Amino acid sequence: PGPAISLAVSPNGHLVLVGLDRRPNEDVQGRMAVVSYLQGKLRLVHVATEARDIIHSVAFSPDGTKAFAGSLDKVIYVYDALNNFVISTTLVGHSHGVRSMNVAANNRYMCSQSVKDDIMVWDLASMTAVSRPRDRFEALADVEANWSTRQTLLGVNSLGVFPDNDSADYLLSI
Length: 174
Prior knowledge:
Blueprint: E1 4-9, E2 15-20, E3 31-38, E4 41-48, E5 55-60, E6 66-71, E7 75-80, E8 86-92, E9 98-103, E10 109-114, E11 119-123, E12 128-129, H1 133-141
Antiparallel strand pairs: 1-2, 2-3, 3-4, 5-6, 6-7, 7-8, 9-10, 10-11, 11-12
C-alpha cells in the first residue's frame, strides 16, 4: 500500500496500525493499513482511505476499541476497531497537520500535537476538544491518566526546557 511512516500495535498484540506515506507519482491521499498478526502470519485486513493527506501518527485506545489516525490534513480520524474499522468520527481543531497523539491509559483523554507544536487535549467520552486552559491542564495532570509513555514533545511530566528562540522541530519524541 505504500511506505510506512508510523505504526501502533493493539493492546492484545494481534493487530498493527500502519500510517502510510504516499507512493511516488501518486496523488496525496492518507491511508492507514490494518495488519493482522495471528499464528505467526501477517495479513492485510483493512485499508482506511478517508484522510486527504499523509497519516503521520496512529494509535489504539488502551482498551483496543478505537483506532486513531492523525493526518497532515489537520484531522484525527477515529475508527471503531471492533466493527471492521468503520470510521466513527473525526476530531478537528488543529491549525496544522497532526504530528503525534497519546491516549491516556484510562481512556478518558487524548493529547495530540501538530507539526507546528500546537497541543490539543480531547475528551474521548464526548469526542470533543477540551477548550478551557484550566481543564486541559487538569486532564494532563490527571494521575489516573498515566501519561508516562507518549509521542508528543510536551506534557506535564516533561523534563528540561528549550532555550529562547529555539525550535523543537528536531525532537520527535521523548
